[in-house]
Amino acid sequence: MFVGHYGVALAAKRFAPKTSAGVTFLAVQWLDIVWAILVLVGWEHARIVPGYLPASSLVFYDYPWSHSLLMAMGWSWLAFRLFKSPVLAVCVFSHWVLDWVAHAPDLPLFRGGPEVGLGLWHFRVATFVVESLLLLAGLWLYMRATRPLNGLGKLAMPAFAVLLLAVEAGDLWGPVPAKIQIVAISGEAAYLLFAGIAQAADTLRERLPEEPPIRLHLNVD
Ligand SMILES: [Zn+2]
To answer: Ligand 1 centroid to 73 CA: how many Å?
Structure first.
C-alpha cells in the first residue's frame, strides 16, 4: 500500500490535534522508511518481477526487521515510548495492517514465521479505489478538525491529496523500475518529500477550539 497510509496520517489530526501532519506522515510510512534503508544496506531483500501482481511488481521475500508483525508492534511500542503518543503508535502500526490488506501472503508474523497477506494487489483498479477512499476519508476528517488561516490554507491539503492520487496512479500504471535500489531510493525520497509538503500545508491551518462535551438532556415527565 502507498498513499492509502496517508489517510491514517490525516485522520490522526482528529485525535491528536497538536501533532503536526509532517510527523504523522513519517509515522505511517515508518516501516517503509526502515525497509528502504535496510534494502540499501543489504539487510533485507526484494526483487522486481514485472507483472508479478497486477498492482505490484515487487517480490518481498525477506523483510522481517521492517515488516514482520512482531517488529511492527515493536516499532509502534518504540514510537509510544519516545513520543508518549498513542496516536503516533497507532499510526506506525497501521502501516502493517494496511500492508496486510494489500500484500500477497509475504508479511511474516515474526522472523522465519508464517507469512500473511490478503492480496488486494491482485486487483489494480480495486487497489486504486481502496487507497483513494482511505486518503479521501482521512482528508475529510483532517479538514473537519482544522480551519484555514488564509486562502492558501483552504486549498493546500486538498491539492496535495490530488497530487498523491496522481502519484499513486503513476505507481500503479506507470513503468516498472529497473532495480530494487531505485525503488528504495525513490521511495525514501518520496516519503521525506511528502512529509515535508504535509508539514508545510499543515501550517496553513489551525486546529479548531475544543468542542464542549456533548450533554444529553432527558426530559422525564
Ligand atoms: Zn510497507
So the answer is: 14
Question: What is the pTM assigned to this prediction?
Answer: 0.92
Residue 6 CB contacts under 8 Å (≥ 6 apart), including other chains: 25, 28, 135, 138, 161, 164, 194, 198
What are the C-alpha distances in Å from 47 to residues 9, 20, 209? 28, 35, 49
CA–centroid distance, 16 to ligand 1, in Å, is: 23
Give me the amino acid identity at 61: Y
Note the pLDDT tens digit of each residue in 54-84: 999 999 999 999 999 999 999 999 999 999 9
**Three-state SS letters, 153-201:** HHHHHHHHHHHHHHHHHHHHHCCCCCCHHHHHHHHHHHHHHHHHHHHHH
Q: How far is the CA of 150 from the centre of ligand 1 (A)?
A: 35
Beta strands at 56-62 and 45-53: parallel, antiparallel or unpaired: antiparallel
Please tell me the distance between residue 174's alpha carbon and the centre of ligand 1 in angstroms: 19
In angstroms, rounded to a whole number, what is the distance separating the alpha carbons of residues 166 and 158? Answer: 13
Distance 106 CA to ligand 1 centre (A): 11
Residues in contact with 31: Cβ distance below 8 Å, sequence separation at least 6, in sequence order:
66, 67, 72, 75, 92, 95, 96, 99
